[in-house]
């Protein structure tokens, strides 16, 4: 049962970092999972979770691979250049995960529903990319000049309610037809903590996996399903409604153990262990909660800014030589 | 203190019907508030709350006036004509509240943020109106033909984060300049119950009041602030994040009183009265919750359909003679 | 040379009807091309051009096949139901061209650029379709009820400047992956005559051919390139800038032959034959004209209305039994 | 008659620079109109037309005042920072025309139709402004920090077909209600020459005048109609359809005088003077041409880029101290 509850819990976050942190909270050590952290700039923190073994993957509820998380508190605050410093850090992480040969070709996939604001991140990122495949195909790569010499194409597959087709099927069809070397898939995610909303970018070489994303993908978009490496870039723009309740419950439990008036309740509740608490809450959630999501009121501005930052990160990673960027 | 808690609670719903129901739950009788109900079609239920006295207004936390609520379970389901039967019922309610003379002029105000899906209802309703003021002004009303002979204008004022101006100021300025006889203001609302999301239309002659709407208006848009009657049409498209927590808490309390294992907790918690419970929950809510809202994942389709139904209801109410519509 | 000029001329219209009319003007008879006409309603005129032979195809500059044109003057005027009578006529034409077995599956392709108003027809048509493939795949066709029992999917491939990929490649990839029986491709066209703008629907079983559409497709989207039948629905929403000049030139020539003052010019100009005139004008056009298009100022309203009419025509053709529609 | 023809001609351009050039072509000297030119950067050319007298205004068909034109060939080409160098030059021009006191308040008006791509410049510029009025009103100007300390508000009034109200009425109403010191109105313009499309910014202190803009404003938006100074920023994104014809006609006339075969026609046509030619062409234009506009096919990308450049120019002009920008 314990495993069941754990898995039930784990689907609530798309962020490997949050899945990892949960174990820390519970003082559980996980073999096969490595965590590194680095403060690359006063405001930019990078964490790297590597799931190295199948056991680690099972414990984390996520496939083996690299999960890099870039956190910056001021990510959605206004500045002049859509946080170019974040774009540059993102481009460095991407370059580590992208093919190391010089002239690989890339298909960027903007997942999500353009018509639902917090889910429109992927489509919006694609709007601002430097697309070159058609130009290189027609005129050769020397026409474009110093920058933009790698072939980049893109697709916004839409969501299944609009197309009747799984995103994975669309991407696989286009991949077979156009034969890119690598896919970069951009998606809006659900986070466990409201503190991470619109402030965190997760980059992983494990692709997109079932149950992830605001739209809850049903099929994997990864090396196994598509046949080429899939790097996924995700930003949490929503929190699961259940998360909100659980967070408040935890606050309640803390308060209960303190408040004079409530001590009787608190003390008996505290005798339940964490598994029992989660089980309890899950049972109590009304069924509608599963089709709801929670998002900040200024999500339009946040998604606009974030999509520029990510686009520019991809543009730099794909189009510019190391020496051209002054880091 | 009791009154304070009540008010705190009441702001959580924009629907007079829900405010009224709450008192029923508590078995509290409210003087000066009258409720009528009518099943006008197999799937359409109309409730009318009339707040008749200042005492009733205080108890309800809403101004004196008429609040008509149209409920239809299938409102966002697909049909051929965007639920013309609902539009016709809406038009009948509007006609009762609109001026009774033949040639009044109307300004329709689409409140909310077009860029945030659940808040885009008002702007989208305005997109599909039959706008006639400029034609009548230039050519006279006989040019337009049988229908569309009343002068209708519209404005989408935007939200304060975009304009720096209160919607009320914009509407008041345009009202002074163009002198309509009546305003119809359309807005997305927050409901208390997830069951009401996208299934309920509230029509009121009390206008828009502070704290209401997805965007939380700060200034009233009513006869007092604008100088002409303001009829408000609202549809709940979001639920306050706090509401979700409170609903789950209530489920928790019910379960607690039953579950063998939890009876000790439940019984002591039940000794708190409702006011104490709410106070407790409000304290426990994390501050971020106040800037979040909860919305269904298919909110784009729902808002698209609802905006057509409302537009058409307004078009019928303003533009067609009773005998022209075959009800 | 004569053939060359003819071809040069013919690319200026995407409408077979206009290509055919041109020959009539010149009193040229074309073998292998048949024209039928029918007035199906007071305001709806249907013409059918059948190109039966390769010779006919050469003369017309269009592939062999059926080209049905539905003309209705009031197509973009406001009415209650987005011209349901036109949708029904469109559905009848589609049913003649679609597979005749009961349960064929369809992929609808919305061609064009959503961000450029007159080119957004295809994407907007797709927005309002009844999409069923994913539901039928998951629950079987009996879940959906009386209507919507055929499997329909859709894709908006975007334009090459955005994706770097030919629409044809995207559609071919998705077709191989999802195996529909037939494609319906919707596209905004360029007309020769401003009188046809937003008033004409062309339906053809020859698919989309190079050089057609507002965006000037470079690759065919037809049975030959995709491997399944492609029915194309097109509406002219722009006029080629060159067309405007040529129309005005023709007016000039007419006037020249009449105006006392200009008779000397007119008479000598008239001695040129049509080929010479076109050659002359083509040479004189400034190069920029080739990247320009001409569109009416109210194109936003027109495209919005037309997209509903076409969506509903497709929905009726694919989802409803003959006896269910009361024609 | 000569004057009439001239005026008829002059409405075809919204650019004072083009009106001025026309006289140069005709070798007509205009008293009361002064022209200065400056190359401020390798790619940026600034021209300043000052209409000093009523006679000059009559001759030019434009009101007395300053018209500054910034031309940059690469304005819509991709670069990293949306052509910040152009934004800075624009901000310098604005600062010369804006009030010279420190704390004036500004209302920015985004004119045009958001739903028609080439007319969406004004609304899109407003989307990216730094709006501060509501923050300063609530918290005072010291909260915002070093930048953004001037009060800026904005409005997108929409077009008359959508609202039934003249933009001027909406702006006047809001101006009376919120009392800004100055208005900046941004609008898409019609140019005479296709060479100027999307490459030219006109800044004038004479406001918006009847007949100007893609949407053809019917009422002035200037100091006289609104009561406060109105600075207008315009970029030509369309060419009048008539312009296209006239340009081609001119090419025709040139060719006629050369081509052996056509010399007979050309020589007699050349005997007409310019007035007679224009009169002739105007008569020949089909009536539909007046409701059409001509626009490049990549207008979506162009308007997106240009709107950023203009937004940033306004942001710099209003929000930053001279010493903060490193020019």
Description:
The structure is a homotetramer of 327-residue chains. Chain A has helices spanning 2-10, 16-25, 54-60, 84-97, 121-127, 133-139, 160-163, 167-178, 223-226, 241-258, 263-270, 274-284, 299-319, and strands at 33-41, 44-51, 65-72, 106-110, 152-155, 182-191, 200-204, 230-240, 292-296. With 327 residues, chain A is an alpha/beta fold. In chain A, strands 1, 2, 3, 4, 5, 6, 7, 8 and 9 form a 9-stranded mixed sheet that branches. In chain A, helix 5 (121-127) packs across helix 13. The first copy, chain A, starts with a helix and ends in an 8-residue tail after the last helix. Chains in contact: A-B, A-C, A-D, B-C, B-D, C-D. The interface between A and D is small, with 3 and 3 residues.
Q: Which structural traits does this protein have?
A:
20% strand; disordered C terminus; 13 helices; homotetramer; 327 residues
